[in-house]
Amino acid sequence: xxxxxxxxxxxxxxxxxxxxxxxxxxxxxxxxxxxxxxxxxxxxxxxxxxxxxxxxxxxxxxxxxxxxxxxxxxxxxxxxxxxxxxxxxxxxxxxxxxxxxxxxxxxxxxxxxxxxxxxxxxxxxxxxxxxxxxxxxxxxxxxxxxxxxxxxxxxxxxxxxxxxxxxxxxxxxxxxxxxxxxxxxxxxxxxxxxxxxxxxxxxxxxxxxxxxxxxxxxxxxxxxxxxxxxxxxxxxxxxxxxxxxxxxxxxxxxxxxxxxxxxxxxxxxxxxxxxxxxxxxxxxxxxxxxxxxxxxxxxxxxxxxxxxxxxxxxxxxxxxxxxxxxxxxxxxxxxxxxxxxxxxxxxxxxxxxxxxxxxxxxxxxxxxxxxxxxxxxxxxxxxxxxxxxxxxxxxxxxxxxxxxxxxxxxxxxxxxxxxxxxxxxxxxxxxxxxxxxxxxxxxxxxxxxxxxxxxxxxxxxxxxxxxxxxxxxxxxxxxxxxxxxxxxx
Length: 489
Hints:
This protein folds into two domains: 2-197 and 254-488, Growth Hormone, Chain: A; 198-253. 80% of the residues lie in helices and 0% in strands. It contains 19 helices and no strands. It has helices at 2-24, 33-40, 44-47, 49-61, 65-71, 74-93, 98-126, 132-160, 164-184, 199-222, 227-249, 263-293, 298-326, 328-346, 355-370, 373-381, 389-428, 433-463, 475-488. The longest helix is centred in the last third of the chain and has 40 residues, at 389-428.
């Protein structure tokens, strides 16, 4: 019996390793883009596809993850996902031209897109509601620390070695969980062999989420009036509307949006979207401020964000245990108050702001976010019946991708618009030409953080309505739990 109880922890450990590598890879190239541009002879708009393309593949595949997780075993999905990820990594490492590098990056994304929903579903299946907070707290460590460490490691490697080393480092780390998955991984979830894929829904989902993600991601560089931006966003929105109506008519939809009838899940989604949009403000605006205005090197920029990542890593399991004991509301209100305060402090940056003061504010901000993200998300998922878990996790992960793209484009637009107007005012006032750009950009960044403060404030106000969900376990769910135990034993 002892071995049977230990089995889920071994399975989860393998999934954690794979998810950490996949998520860590998302932010690995951000600082390396200038070196890639120089080495492969491409411009910034072309290089940006390495980030945009990755996001697009995630946005298209994550909604389909609900179907895949219900139809296939967690072992099969993990092996396929990690195989794709490893293949993409190898292709990117040896890429002779940009097109091969982009293909490798998108194959990586195809594997990565399935890891987060898969891991979250296994966690929900493996742990009872009363222990779920602690488990999801450890899961939160993967979700927030992995992408935070990426820029630090990337900055160090790019400064001393070729950008290709980034992929050669990731490859063996990806092959280890793949090998463990092949030989050690067992199934922990129950499959519905009768479920079928609605191809029309998949096509509408791909057009919808793909169009919205691409349109908003491109708006920051191409401008909102660019025909490509306007058309892709319009096609995306129309496709999503049709997709939504179709899901309401299907008995077994690709994405079960009817779960929004559960108030706490709907509330957790709204808070997660607001906090994701606000969180992206620091991820995008801080590197611009630190490297462009302050002139700090890439490696020092990454190191500035490292304490925040370490704090989140330490706090995620702690907040998970606190969530099990006190619920999400007790954590979310002070956590979001910290986020609102620190975001406002970032709106007061100056040319003389010290490196360590910026580091302290950023670290405190990460502390606040660590108190909010996983507790609020887990609180919403705990409301759902077990059969809806794949849909809940798919919706949450998709919304995070969309919120990130929309938030990024919106805040960059706010920054650019404010920068242009301030530059004109400074020029009219007779400011020295060599000072205008830095002063105008600083004002644009500050104003974007000020706007972001209000987005975080919305999340704070919503957090006062959080309640601890009480959901009775149905006899059908008890039968599923029993059948899961039979599979794992």
